[in-house]
What we know:
Blueprint: H1 44-47, E1 68-73, E2 84-91, E3 103-111, E4 115-120, H2 126-131, E5 136-137, E6 142-149, E7 154-166, E8 169-170, E9 175-180, H3 202-205, E10 209-213, E11 232-235, E12 242-243, E13 265-269, E14 281-287, E15 302-304, E16 311-316, E17 319-325, E18 332-333, E19 356-363, E20 369-376, H4 379-382, E21 395-396, E22 403-406, E23 415-419, E24 428-430
Parallel strand pairs: 3-10, 4-9, 17-22, 18-21
Antiparallel strand pairs: 1-2, 1-14, 2-3, 2-7, 4-10, 5-6, 6-7, 6-11, 7-8, 7-9, 11-12, 13-14, 13-23, 15-24, 16-17, 19-20, 23-24
Amino acid sequence: MRTMQSHIAGKFRGWVQAVVAVMLVSVVAACGGGGGDSSSSNSSNTLNGGSLPASPTQQPIAATAANTVPITVGVGVKGVINIPTVSVTVCPPGSPPTSSSCQTINNIQVDTGSFGLRVVGSVLNASLLQALPINTVGTSSTQLAECATFADGFTWGSVRTATVAIGGETTTAGIPMQIIGDMPSSTVPAKGCGSGPADNTVSDLGANGILGIGTAPNDCGVNCENVNSSNYFACPGGSSCTPTALAPAQQVANPAANFAADNNGVIVQMPPVSNTGASSATGTLVFGIGTQSNNALAAAQTFATNVSGDMTNSVYNGTTVTAFFDSGSNAYFFADSSLAQCGSNFAGFYCPSSAQTRSITLGGLSSTRASVSIGILSASTLFGNTSNFAFNDLAGQIGGSSSFDLGLPFFYGRYMYYGFATGGQAPYVGF
């Protein structure tokens, strides 16, 4: 994860992925749109003598079953490109999602590159926020908070317990989640909370929250059992916060791994879009893999991964890289000195003079290997139509050459599978 806005932004990968310097951009539209392609995908002017690989063509199923929910890419809350969102219902622990004490929050980003639910506190009703108990640590009931670090900053806020419902699925009990920005800036620890500005508002995030549904059941696992690498802080009296070790069961949790049923994975299904972009796109998030008639594992390729969903034995341009499928990144991000970068208007993005194709060989922890090709058009060309928010061929530079981020552009026209590291199941990804 992460997609951000305000011209420069960062990608959050949580606890296991090395933080990399990623530059993202938002395109604020003069007007919204209702979907559809804005122009021909085969325009010779757009390709400018280059070529693009054939686009995948899978269509999402209708989001009508209890284990589904619609995904929307569009103008959203801040006009951020390629940001997939769903609606999430948050309830006091133990309350059913039909209770009047619950609140349904729209524009929560779907992020397969992080783990756990995080909601900006300002979008919650005051009564609901008060009803969500603040989690504590230690024998003295010391308040628990978390600092989630980004390439360009961090989110800071309390850890609370809530029952979470998405579509027709509900967690079996209250689970830990982060409330972003509900603690004063004066409580941010001077050490151990990343660098850069605080991303604690809807405007900063470009969304009302983050739904982390990657392969891990919680956000930092064994890493946070070590106080020196923990994201968590003990805040006696709500201040004087210091790092604290935290067991996985107390960490911010992946809601989809805590549903009563359909809890072994997710499928992210996005429709095809034109190579020159679309004003919007509507897909489907399916819960469970092989648990219902609508979620069979039908991937042509699956890859065994580490707990965070990384394919650590991938190869690009002859170099071994860690590749990952991340719906929370709004472009492909990788290092390639042969691709021209954009100027300052779209810093960090690639702006080749003609359409380009690049290939990467994906490899996880097993012997499975598969080569995939991606298309790249100039970011300045794509951003020329300010009413478009869905792009399948946008790419940018990543810091270093050891990572290859297959962001949301890879998802269009595909079913993307994420098998959770729960119930004795080894984590995997596939498409």
